[in-house]
């Protein structure tokens, strides 16, 4: 039983790439591909036909699914049922969205409102599927951003999610949690130069330890920190004019600037979209927010907590102390460096592991793996230097761990080449870049370079628990995988989906009765061998002609729905066709009672 989870960062563009790269062999040419689900089905086959596929950030509106206008017929993939959570509130519409595809016979119900909170459920961030002995939560956790409002929304979501999982356990279900968590749980989940350091803790340690063994970098910090803080008091955001290399359009960005004690000015950081963002990078004051659970003011970042990269820049530009790469590595691996221990999302992740006994499956099987990231900053080409973060996770209840398939040689993928240290950084870089075959975009515009077919095919391989290095042209995230043993999936395949369940119905908007809008998205009519015009929809649409008439009834048109009297069918004998709908008269014309014209008359 294979489970794959992937943040596609927009399902439509991802499917467009898949349709070009992996059209079925039956297609005469890639240029003649039609928007069907065949390329997607073929793509899943190449990925060994996962039993369950969880996608995040599909960004498809609910209206598109209910009217069958979804791109590449993505709601109806052969052999699978699909369950959709779409963003419906005004703030999130057109964004977010999660969908779970599960092979027919593996799901008995689904719920797109498992958090039982209208505000949270309407953001399109969670869908729960019931697989009999266990439930699976597919989530796209809010980023949180740099605002208090964003963090409150994130923690409201996480707290509601934890309650929902607990409720399922009380009902006797085991729980799986997959998706984009927008959080990290281990310092190895973060590029080493971006790890945090609490300068106050470092300085306090100097007064209690043996100064003879104190690393030189700590003494540098102690000597220059007060000077750095003094200079940071002069910080300001300076507008920087930038030019889009493709459109030649100019616009302002912002960068931080400080004045040194000798009167000179130096620039800090990089260009940011706003003045607030430029200054926030160097905000070393204590940060708090109101905890939504306790309604108390809670510390989320202590003062003088700074990432290693930023600390190195301040030491170089303000204190004139240049640390080499070796020194920075020593700092990153020190006990004082790691994730922000006061981050609410980090504490939440820690709680579900330590208190709820969930297991981070990847870290369980690969405890020594370094630099194995699932997301990179796309616009700055960080994937090609492997400067990213692991924010996509698979958690399972501890009781399910024994059912995770274990292979004799279960190692992480390293591209198409073997490595002496498959868990090391060199192997991770090779996997992320397909041994250098994936190439980033240029800063002169044009987007990411199109990979070769050889590079694209490195994403495929045997079923395993770990990471699937999907191409950078598809998404800024890669997929993650979980392989359960055969005995665990033996009961699946025989479950009956309760399509009458109201929650399941809401999760399958593509199965709703078609609206007038769907006719606007109908495929073009095809001529039959007899020369008459038919379509696949005509075969499903009941005839409005007399049951006694042998002649086929005329195809209803949109005009008939808007009250065109000429749309009323007549039999070949010239008799008026009997219909179940009543009609009314207006200015000598017969108008169906359900016509929109009657609504305009009122």
TrEMBL record:
InterPro entries: AP_endonuc_1, Endo/exonu/phosph_ase_sf, Endo/exonuclease/phosphatase
Marked site (Important for catalytic activity) residue numbers: 392
Record bears the keyword Magnesium: yes
Amino acid composition bias (Low complexity), ranges on this chain: 570-589
Span list, region Disordered: 523-602
Ranges of biased composition (kind: Polar residues): 543-569, 592-602
UniProt keyword Manganese present: yes
Span of the signal peptide: none
PROSITE patterns assigned: AP_NUCLEASE_F1_4 (PS51435)
Residues binding Mg(2+), per UniProt: 7, 57, 180, 182
Gene3D superfamilies per the UniProt record, alphabetical: Endonuclease/exonuclease/phosphatase
Pfam families in the record: Exo_endo_phos
Site (Transition state stabilizer): 182
Molecular-function GO terms, alphabetical: hydrolase activity; metal ion binding
Swiss-Prot/TrEMBL keywords: Hydrolase, Magnesium, Manganese, Metal-binding
Superkingdom of source: Eukaryota
Residue ranges of every copy of the Endonuclease/exonuclease/phosphatase domain listed in the record: 4-209
Record-stated family: Belongs to the DNA repair enzymes AP/ExoA family.
Protein name: Endonuclease/exonuclease/phosphatase domain-containing protein
Lineage of producing organism: Eukaryota, Sar, Stramenopiles, Ochrophyta, Bacillariophyta
